[in-house]
Amino acid sequence: MPGKTDLTSLLPLKPVELEILLALVDQERHGYGLVQHIARRTDGLVRLEPGNLYRVIKRLLEDGLVQETARRPAPDLGEERRRYYRLTALGERVTNAELRRLRAVLSSSAVRVLARRTNGT
Amino acid sequence: LTADSLSRSERAYRALLHLYPRDFRRRFGDDMCDLFRDRLRHDEQHPARLWLHVAPDLIGSAAHERMRALHDGLLKPRQHTPLLSRSGDSMLETIVNDVRLTLRMLRKTPAFTAVAILVIALGSGAVTTIFSAANALVLRPLPGVREPRDVVDIGRTTENGRGSLTPSYPFYRNIRDENRTFDGVAAWTILSLTVSTGAEGTTAFGNMVSGNYFNLLGVRPALGRFFSTEEDRTPGTHPVIVLSNGFWQRRFGGDSSVIGRTISVNGARYTIIGVTPLEFGGLMPIARVDAWVPIMMAAQLGQGDNALSSAGSGWLMLFGRFRDGVSVEQARTDLSAIAKAHIAEEPRDMGRYTGIAISRVTGFPADASGPIVGFVTILFVISLLVLIIASINVAGMLLARATARRREMAVRIALGASRRRIIRQLLTESVVLFLAGATAGTLLAIAGTRAFGRVELNVEVPLSVEFSPDYRVLLFALGCALLTGVIFGLAPALQATRADQSVSLRSDTPGGGMRRTRLRNALVIGQMAVSLLLLMSAGLFVRALGRAQRVEPGFDPGNVAIATIDVGTAGYNEARARVFYDELRARISGIPGVSAVSYAPMLPLTGSSSGTNFTVEGFTPPGSNASDNSVNFSFARVGPGYFDVIRMPLVAGRGFEAADRQDSPGVAVVNEGFAREFWPSGSAIGKTLRRDGTPITIVGVTRDAKYSSLNEEGRPFIYVPVSQDWSSRTNLLVRTSGDPLAFASAIREAVRTGDPLLPIPEVSTLHAATSVSLLPQRVAAGVTGAMGALGLLLAAVGLYGVVAYSASQRTREIGVRMALGADRGNVLRLIVREGMRLVVAGMGIGMVLAFGITRVMTGFLFGVSPIDPLVFAVIPVSLGAIALLASYLPARRAASASPLTALRGE
Predict the structure, then answer these.
(1) What separation in angstroms does the CA of B281 have from each of A1, B164, B244, B259, B369?
(2) B49 part of contact set with chain A, CB < 8 Å
(3) What is the ipTM of this complex?
(4) What is the pTM of this model?
C-alpha cells in the first residue's frame, strides 16, 4: 500500500475513478448502486457499463483505494446477495488530494479569465 | 417482457464473459452478471437497448483486459495455478493448465524427471536412428523423382520367370515404340568416365541414359537443360553431358557459367548442358552419380561399336511409367507380345527370354532389394524392443510415483475433481515426459545417423546415402512419443485413480492393493520377456558374425593392394590397352617387396558375380535341345599370375601365363566342384569347353573357394584369361610383403610413368574390399549388440527399481516379520524370491516368443540355427543372473533395516 508520500503518484484520478470514490464517501454501495448513484449525480452524463465499471474497480482495488466486502443481502434489490464496496482510509486521502488539486485548478487565473469571458457574452 | 427472454439475455451475457481473461472473469464475473441482471430488471428499458450499450463495453473492456493480462504475463511471474480446475474452462485453457501443472511437478522432482527423460531418450533414440536408416534406404528410394510409385523396372526373363537377360538397345527401341501400356519407357546403364577440366583427369561415376530419361522421371534441371530429342536420334553426333549437383559443386564450385563450357570426357570434348537438382541421384541413389551422358554416345564411351545396333549384346536397364489405369498384368501381356515379335525378327537375340518381369523400382540392384528390406525390418523391430523396454521402465516409475501421490489424488477427488480430470492430468504428465524424451532421442538419432554416414564402407562404387532425419523421421518420433506416452501412461493413471480413495485418505496404509501390485508385476514380466527376445536376437547375430569370420574363403586376401584402372575411358583402343597393361605389370613387378601382380575386372567376394553360357563337351543338360546344350556357369576373367596373387591353390595343372594370349589357343581353369561334377572319376585337365562355339581347353583345377559372398553354397566355377575375353576396365592386384598401403605411392607412380594423362587410381586393399561381404553381418552384430546391451541395462535398472520400490512399500511388513523372529536371511529370500518369480515368468514368455520369432532371421544368420542351443542356453542364464543381482541388491538393503526402524514406519 502506498505511503503518504506516494499520494501524488496516484493523481490525477480519472473522472470515472473520482465519481466512484465520491459515491462511496457516504456509504458502501454495490455495483448497481454505484451505477445508479453516479448516473443520477451526473444527470446521466457518466453512464457506467459493467465491463468498464469493474475494470475501474479492479484498478482501485489494486491501488488500495477501495475495499470489497463479502457478498451480503441487498435490501434495495429484494434481499439478493451483492458484493459491496467501501472507501479505504487511503482512498479518502487520495480523494481529498484530488479535490484539492481540482480546487487549485478552479482558482487558477486562466479559469477566472475564462469565467469572465463566458459571462461577458 | 417475459422471464424467458430476460434469462436468455443473462445467459448470453455470462457466456460472453469468456471474452475476459480468466483471472478477471473469476474475480468479477459473478458481480458483473449481477449488475447486468439488476439493470435488466430495474432500468426499465428494453433488453435490446441495454445490449446496445453493454455490447461495445464488453468488447472494449475485454480487449483492454486481455492486453493488460498479456502485458502482466510477460513481465510478472505467474502467482498461482489452482490444483482444482473449475468447470467452464475452455479446452485450450485446460490443456495449457495441465501442461503448466505438469512442468511444475516435473521441476519439483528433478531426479525422477531426468532419469525418465534419459531412459526414454535412449529407447526413442535407438528406434529413431534405425527408422532414419530405414527411411533413407527403403522408404524414400527415389528422391527427386515425380510420383516414384508409378515408375517400374522392366526386365527380361524366361517364360517361367527364371533367369534374366539384360536388354539390348534394339530390344529397348521396340519396347519404347510399340508398347500401349506405358507413358514412356527409358533405358540407362552405369559406366565410369574419365573427366578432366585441366591437366589431370578424375574418375567420375556416370549414367548413360536415353533421351526421355529425365522427362519420364519428372526431374527438372537446376540449371541449363536436359537432353533434347535431337540428341537421342543419331549415334555419335552430340557430345553433351549433364552434371550432378554434387559434382558441379565439387568440381566447379557451383559456378553457373559452366553451361555451354566443354570438358574432356574419356579424351573427347563434351559440352555441359545442364545440372540436376540436388536431391536427384538417379535410379540407384545408393550409388553416387556424377554425370549423365546420352545413350547415343555409347560407341564413343566404350560400349562397343555396335552397342546400338546389335540385338545380341545386352547392356541396358529399362524402366517405365504406367499409363493411367493400366494393371501390371496388362503391361506384362503387352510387352511380352512385343518381346516375342522382337525375337522372331532378331536371330541373334536369346530366344528363350520371352517373358517380361515388371517390378517396383526399389533403388537397389534387383536381387538385393528383398534382403535389404528384410534386414532393415529386423533391425527396426529389434530397436522397437529397446523402446518398449525403456517405456516399461518409465511406466513402472510413473506407477510408483502415482502410488506415492495417491493421497494427493484422493484429496483432489474429495475436493470435487473428477477422475477423468485427474487421469487427464496424469496422462499429460506422461505425454510431456515422453515428448521430452523423444526430443532428446531425436537428437541422439541425428548424432547416430551422422556416425552411420561417416562409416567407410570400402565398396567399389561410392555409396551416397542420405541418412539424416527428414520430416518423416520427425513425424515418426512425434507419433512414437504420443503413442508410448498414452499407452504407458494410461495404465498407471487408471491404477492410481481406481483404488478406494477413502482408504488412500487414511494415513498409512501401505501399498494400494492387489491391482496395483498386479500391474507392477505385469510390467516386470513384460520387460523380462522383451529383454530376453532382444538379447537372443543380438546373441544370434553375434554368433553369425563369429561364424562368418571363420568361413574359409579359399584364398588369402591379406597383403594384396588393389587399384581400379580403366584406360578405355582415356581413349585407348584395345591393342594399345593390352600393351599398357603388360608394361604396367612388368613395371610394378620390379618394385621391391612385390611378389606377384595380376589383373581381374571383377574382384572376388565383393558381392558381384557374372555368368555366361558354356557347353561342356560330351555333356547334354537334361531338357535341352540339340541346337543349344549350353549351361550358364559362374565365371571370372583374370590375368596371368592371378592365382599366385590371391594365393588360391591349384590342385592340378597350371594357372594362366603371359603366354596365354589373344591369339593363342583358348584356355580355362575350373574349380574342383566343376571337375567333380563332370568328371567324377577322371581328370579335368585337357577336357574341352565351348563358348559361342569356340573351343577352350581346361589347363588347371583350383581348390573350391567362395566367389561372390561368404554364405554362398559351393558351385562349379570357371576362370578364363582376360586376354582372351577383353575388358579395358580392370583391377590391378599386387601381392606385397607387409602393409599393402605402404606400396600405394609406388603403384600410383608406376601408373603415372605409363601415362601421365591417366587418372591416378585410388589404392586400397583386397582385404578391405572383401570385407564388404561381411557387411550385413557386421552391421547386424554391431547394431543388435549395442541395442542388446542398452536393453539389458535398462531392464536391469527397471527390475532393480521395481524390487527396491516394492520392498520399501513393505517396510512395515518386514519389520513385523523380523519382530516375530524372522532372520535377515528369511526376509532376503522372501523378497528375492518374489522378484525372481516374475523374472522367470517373463523369461519363459520370452523363450516362447524367441522360438517363434527368431526364425525370420534365418537368412542373415550364416547357417547358425535360429534356435541355436548355445544362444538359447547362455542368454537366459546370463539374463537370469543379472536379474538376480538386480533384485538381490535392493532386497539386501530392505533386510538390513533394523526391525525398530522398519516398524516405526515409512
Answers:
(1) 73, 26, 8, 20, 17
(2) no
(3) 0.89
(4) 0.63
